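Prompt: Have a read of the protein record below and flag anything odd:
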Amino acid sequence: MIEVVASMARGPVLLAGELMECLITFTNPMSHLSTSASSEMLAWASAQIHCQFHASESRVALPAQGNKQDVQAESDTVLIPNRGERGQCVLDTPPKILFCDLRLDPGESKTYSYSEVVPIDGPPSFRGQSVKYVYKLTIGCQRVNSPIKLLRVPFRVLVLQGMPEPPFTQDEEVSPSNPFLEEEEASRRDARPLERALDMLMVTTSRRCPHMFNITNMRGKVAKFSIFKTVYRLGEDIVGTFNFSEGDIPCLQYSVSLQSEEEIQQQYQRRPGQAVSVTGHGRHLESCLHTASSHFSLPIPLNVTPGFSTDIVSLRWRLHFEFVTAREPMEPPTVLQNQSEVTVWTGAEHVDVDTFSWDLPIKVLPTNPALASYVSQFTGTNSINI
């Protein structure tokens, strides 16, 4: 028996275009003191990255794939990384040979390093209501005259899409200059794609551009809403404020929900005019009668997928507002200046109300993969015995 353990060096979350490094250790666990101990042989081992796509048949109409024969069914020496997986492989990297003819004595182990750049033209990891994109690192191993054994290590990929153009020239440094760094080291740091992408991401999401909206319905103005920006990264808090003192009609209650919209492209919709799938990721509810101002704070979870678009599906983000307003003016409670007794104000038992909603589109971008790794469902490590 040989134990194979694969462990990703930088965690289970990666940014597209980042170099993935994985250490793969092969061990013969038998002790050399055992009477039945003997050397173990492996013919070869290779590794590659692939992205598996799966779509809901009730929501997505994919074109027919035709008769596609499984090469591995005829030959056990051909590596097919997505063999046995649901859906179809939409992206894979060329396989890299780790070794050929490996011999391990009892108690001996050998470690090999696999590195590959995560393709930048692929979709992000996504588990939606209609489609799924799942990334895996697959290591194939084979003994002589034995079938191939596959070790899969799932991981998450974040893709930068929809970032606005930078307001500075390409020659200008993105990150603040550090006087304690030598010029050579600073230029070498800026040459790294991951660091430059993260610096650009930080600049884009840190720029404040206040937006103000007048919330109105058919009876008049309800409130003035202010939000500091509409571009966020994973893990940030969305903060907004309401000013009800400028309203013409009283607002009894409001709620704000963070929602994602998953829309199948028209040519792949199972039914014409198919509804968009909406998923909620947090909600703030507050009663605000006789309130002059109020605010809300909604965190963006680290484990959700930023906005993206492919040929089959697009994911957008929005804030969904719901307001409950009174049809008639409501007088606030009066408190006398010299009143010594405690008074209790009781609200009206019956109020005629109107309800309406409003959606505000926002952009959600990725964050540093190291931060997203803390809440990842993957460990970046897996093992098998062959």
About this structure: The chain has two domains: 3-63+75-161+370-385, 207-331+351-365. The longest strand covers residues 40-55.
